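tool_call: predict_structure(chain=1)
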Amino acid sequence: MKVPAYLVLRLLSLMLVIIGLCLMSYSGAQLLSDDVISNPDTNLQLTLGTLLLLIGFIGPVRIIYNGAQVPAEIQRTIIILAITIPLSGASLLFAGMMGEPMYSLWACFCVGLLILLSALIGFYPLSKRFPNNFYMGEMLSIIKSAGIAGNKESSPADQAMVRWTTGREGVAVGNNAPNGTVITMQGEKVQLSSFFGKNPLVLNFGSYSCPHHRKRVNELLALMNKWKHQNIDFLTVYTAEAHTEDGWKLADQYVNDVEYTNEDDFCFSYATTIDERRHMAEWLIKTKHFDMPLVLDTMQDTLLKAYNSWPIRLYVIHESKVVYCGDQGPFGYEPSSVDAALKKILRP
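tool_result:
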């Protein structure tokens, strides 16, 4: 489904805002009026209330407690739904049991408010995290592949997050930038700190098999071209793959890439040798015209772990200290945030 995910979420947000405002306006007008409606349909309220409670607890509440780990931005929206849906159901159930017009109006007002909050602090902020070329089909593929509605033990997403990450935090601003061995594309072992000079260094962690890394390559390269003539250095550390055949596989994740030929040509597994990792880095450079300086993380994934950078993350290093730490990818990966950080660093 080649419909931008951000557009769908914004239309959904708009629809929910309209519904929420209509419910609040109607109930508010009735509460302020002397002519209050009578004989509320208690059976309808009880039915809707029960249905919303079931949806809330079987869906978002259960996912929060038993479902797979998911990116922080999606989890935040699920948490909001885990609050607003059961509260809406409880409001309608309470009004239905009381059977009084006044309680029905207050329940209607509360449901409208909760719908409004779901849109304004849930779906709309999530829509702003998606690049314009991230489509609904890809989003649904991620949700399906994650096993988000299943248990953690059977979720490829959860297994990958546990394997490659330690929470969601990166290296805090103000801390020394971790050092470690990296391998150049020519096979030479050097220290990452050898790239720490007097100029600020934008440090990009990523891999080809991360859809958001590929989709934001042009933004990243545009950022480099904007700043490289202003004494800003750039470096990519190529790390463990994000989505592989033998890990968290995403179906049809490459079909919208211009280099796509057929599925057999795009079956990638975790690298088991540095040569295999170099091959994937070369593939990124070739297919995405990725002309940013690039080195490879070791097969011990030293820097991936030190910077908690899986699947993708951005940093800015200056005078060997972290001056900017981006949010955890995929949806926290924002080249535009780096642009803002660089402007602050170079501000007279």
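agent: The chain has eleven helices and seven strands. Proceeding to next step.
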